[in-house]
Amino acid sequence: MDFNKMETGGLRANGVYQQAGKFLGSGFLGTVCHYGILWLLVSKRLVDPVTASSFGMVAGAVVVYLLNYHVTFNSPKKHFGAVSRFVPMVGIGFTLNGSILYIAIHFFALPLIPSQVLATAAQFFSGFYISRKWVF
Predict the structure, then answer these.
(1) Distance (Å, rounded) from C-alpha 25 to C-alpha 19?
(2) pLDDT tens digits, the chain, 136 residues: what are they?
(3) Which stretches within the chain are classed as H helix?
(4) Which one of 55, 65, 98, 108 is at 20 to 30 Å from 9 when CA atoms are compared?
(5) Do residues 34 and 93 make contact, with C-beta atoms less than 8 angstroms apart?
(6) What is the total count of domains within the chain?
(7) How far apart are CA 15 and CA 73, in angstroms?
(8) CA distance 113 to 110
(9) Which sign, positive or negative, has the C-alpha torsion 42, 46, 47, 51?
């Protein structure tokens, strides 16, 4: 039995868990921004919920990018390289968010908040995987 490989695997797994925890924390702060803008725009009746969520998601993405770049992944990449990969990932998240929200509200008649929570969960898992493997 090779204990070095086991230890390295453990450290690698531990690193993934630490990154996932930091990703969750930065995602939480981005989500607070996202939901805050969503609530503001919907409560003031400025735009429909899907549009409000889309604006909020973009603002939250800026918060998430900065925290993930500097804290979660401590990226060695230049901002241009990371942003050029982050933007397509946000596009995927934007499409996922809008699609899930639209389907949940319009086809399943779910309330806004549970629909948005479902969309956010989908973004978390896809975003962590893409961020870890490709963006940062």
Answers:
(1) 10
(2) 443 444 444 446 678 899 999 999 999 999 899 999 999 999 999 999 989 988 998 899 999 999 999 999 999 999 999 999 999 998 998 899 899 999 999 999 999 999 989 998 998 899 999 999 999 9
(3) 3-43, 49-67, 79-106, 112-130
(4) 65
(5) no
(6) 1
(7) 10
(8) 8
(9) negative
Q: Tell me which residue has tokens 């499409």.
A: 95
Q: Which two tokens stand for residue 98?
A: 């809008």
Token pair belonging to 8: 């390295």
Owning domain of residue 32: 3-135
Q: Cβ(135)–Cβ(77) under 8 Å?
A: no
Q: Is the separation of the CB atoms in 74 and 18 below 8 Å? A: no
Amino acid identity of 59? Answer: A
